[in-house]
Amino acid sequence: MDSIKIQAPATVANLSCGFDVLGVCLNEPYDEIEIIKIDKPEVQIDILDSKFSNIPNIPSQNTGGVPAELLIRDLKLNFGFNIKIKKGIPLCGGLGSSAATSAGVVYAINKLLNSKLSDIDLLKYALEGEKVSVSNPHADNIAPGLLGGMILIRDTSSLDISKVPINNFYFAIIHPDIKISTEVARNILPPSIKLDLAIQQWGNLGSLINAFHLQDLNLIKKSMQDVVIEPYRSSLIKFFDEIKKISINSGALGFGISGSGPSMFALCENENIAKEIVNNSKEIYLENNIDCDTYVSTVNNIGPKVI
Amino acid sequence: MDSIKIQAPATVANLSCGFDVLGVCLNEPYDEIEIIKIDKPEVQIDILDSKFSNIPNIPSQNTGGVPAELLIRDLKLNFGFNIKIKKGIPLCGGLGSSAATSAGVVYAINKLLNSKLSDIDLLKYALEGEKVSVSNPHADNIAPGLLGGMILIRDTSSLDISKVPINNFYFAIIHPDIKISTEVARNILPPSIKLDLAIQQWGNLGSLINAFHLQDLNLIKKSMQDVVIEPYRSSLIKFFDEIKKISINSGALGFGISGSGPSMFALCENENIAKEIVNNSKEIYLENNIDCDTYVSTVNNIGPKVI
Asked: CA A195, A196, A200: angle at the middle one, nearest 5?
């Protein structure tokens, strides 16, 4: 195989109470990545035209370029890769855009190498790519972006991860055009939190994991609450309270900030609820002259897809 | 039915990373409680002789007496109860001794009333009983002590609880005769904790719940770590580090302080490991002239038992 074309999916990290430890893979939006083997052991990147094409094409500055170069070096390949990236995932939006490029490139190169790398190796290289965009990346976008489904990260340094069953849900994704860098979103958080709040948060997270296994929608609804991070970060997102109210009133099982925002997600039992939420949310932003992309997606249980 | 005799089981709260939100019910040790209907709508308590008989027999000061009186009042009963309690669970040991009395009495009275109360009502009355011994009780002993198995408490005030599957494990329980009151154990904790540590703790708890569902022993082992509470409370328990080392070296899947201590538990794959741990641990305490009770128990999945 000399070339491959894939979809690299968006991911929702944190899922309210699972800050830094939980992420889920979506079917939409996604990037398209085509990789063609070239004779020289080097990496070339072409950014194809799209709404979100404003990313570097210099390999050392691109989250897909870095792991590609590392793979050439570490595996002593005598060939290289031309990587064509068509971004479909909003940049700096909290939907794992940089992780999608990184995970997608690593996944695709591994396919070109007849899948010689293990999942853990793939994760390691993809995380190296993410370091281009954030200094100390967690695996809460990379792991679901590579492996699909909902992933719990016990510990990033040892890549100690496990899958949590999640099926038959719809995600309403609202991405208002508000600029928040991951670093700003992180720096707004306090270094310490009240023990009482921490206990509430881990009670909620434990119950959320239990609820997904038990398929207990009522418990999912009660558990999907973020009492630690949301009170800080929601202040960075205009109309957050309004969108949350719309989502809950429409019947969402849960609502929260996706990753470090500004995107928000609503977990829904069915497609109609998700559609109602994105439509009503979009209206609010457009009325206030803020551009807004929205998506309705099922859970992607496999990760990147060859197309 | 005019009388009933039951076993009211011990419970292990917290289970390392699940501080205040997780508890499990054991088959041993247990209290024996006999309740006999009497003509007058009042409560009489007899404390039968045992190693741990030093508890109040005045109903308003006894964790079983209080809910019994409340039940007589609220249900407008025209009869009362003579309650005979034979304590088998060490007092102030971190094994849910006060909760066992409370849960056991409520369970037994409900049987005498032809099970007219719901589980949630039983929990409420049992929690009222626990308030005799601790000002702001959590349900992490009461809930598993009443319902059996492993219980996750998302929120105590709304009694929002769920069961987590746990089977085929053995608990080694080591109870050294060291006095620690629940209040002292609570006051040693800091009011705030580093966000990083909180994230580690909820990553561990989420993974532990996932691991029990997936029956992934390796993940249980990695997840059952308490980075928040144990560093403080372990200082109150002489030879804690030694007992932890013995347990891990013997092959325990997890080890920690049971409730607020001084009891410690080791979660074990089989009975032999658990026996080795309790024997070696007991030796250390006895060599140092500290009395020590030990138990090896399977998980009690039903709670109190009629005998």
From this structure: 115
Chain B residues inside the 8 Å CB shell of A203: 20-21, 152-155
Query: Are A44 and A58 within one domain?
Result: yes
Q: Test A155 with B206 for CB contact under 8 angstroms.
A: no
Which of B166, B188, B216 is a domain's end point? B166
Is B153 in the same domain as B225? no
Q: Tell me, yes or no, whether B304 lies in a domain.
A: no
Half-sphere exposure of B28 (CA within 13 A, CB side): 12
Among the partner residues A162, A192, A214, nearest to B162 by beta-carbon distance: A214
Q: Tell me if B199 and A21 make a contact (CB, 8 A cut-off).
A: yes
| B207–A152 C-beta distance less than 8 A | yes
Q: Do A263 and A15 form a contact (C-beta atoms < 8 A)?
A: no
Whether residue B162 is found in the same domain as residue B174? no
- Supply the CATH number for residue A261's domain: 3.30.70.890
The confidence score (pLDDT) of residue B99 equals: 96
Most A-contacting residue of B209, B212, B217, B222 (CB-CB within 10 A), to test interface: B209
**How long a stretch of residues is chain A?**
307
* Cα-Cα-Cα-Cα dihedral sign, residues A207, A213, A217, A218: negative
Q: Looking at the structure, do residues B182 and B263 belong to the same domain, yes or no?
A: yes
Active site residue B130: yes
Q: What percent of chain B has pLDDT over 90?
A: 89
Rounded to the nearest angstrom, the minimum Cα separation between B38 and chain A is 42
| A-B contacts at Cβ under 8 angstroms | 126
Subunit contact B213:A213, Cβ cutoff 8 A: yes
pLDDT 10s digits, B71-90: 999 999 999 999 999 999 99
List C-alpha distances in Å: A163 to A23, A213, B17, B124. Answer: 10, 11, 19, 35
What is the DSSP pairing of strand A80-86 with strand A43-47?
parallel
pTM above 0.90, yes or no: yes
Residue B70 sits in a domain whose CATH number is 3.30.230.10
Q: Measured between CB atoms, which of A18, A193, A210 is closest to B198?
A: A193
A130 classed as catalytic: yes
How many domains does the structure of chain A reveal? 2
Do A21 and A150 lie in one domain? The reply is: yes
A113 and A261 housed in the same domain: no
Active-site option among A32, A34, A182, A298: A182
Q: Is B286 a residue whose pLDDT tops 90?
A: yes
Asked if B126 and B9 sit in the same domain, the reply is yes
Q: Which residue out of B63, B69, B101, B130 is catalytically annotated?
A: B130
Point out the residue among B198, B200, B204 whose CB comes nearest to the CB of A201. Answer: B198
Q: Is residue B133 located within the same domain as residue B278?
A: no
Taking the C-alpha atoms of residue B126 and residue B106, their distance in angstroms, rounded to an integer, is 6
φ/ψ of residue A118, rounded to 5? -80, 165
Q: Is the separation of the CB atoms in B94 and B257 below 8 Å?
A: yes
Domain of B228 in residue numbering reads as 170-298
Asked, for residue B14, whether it belongs to a domain, the answer is: yes
Interval B22-29 mean pLDDT: 98
Q: Which residues in chain B have their CB less than 8 angstroms from residue A205's CB?
A: 202, 205-206
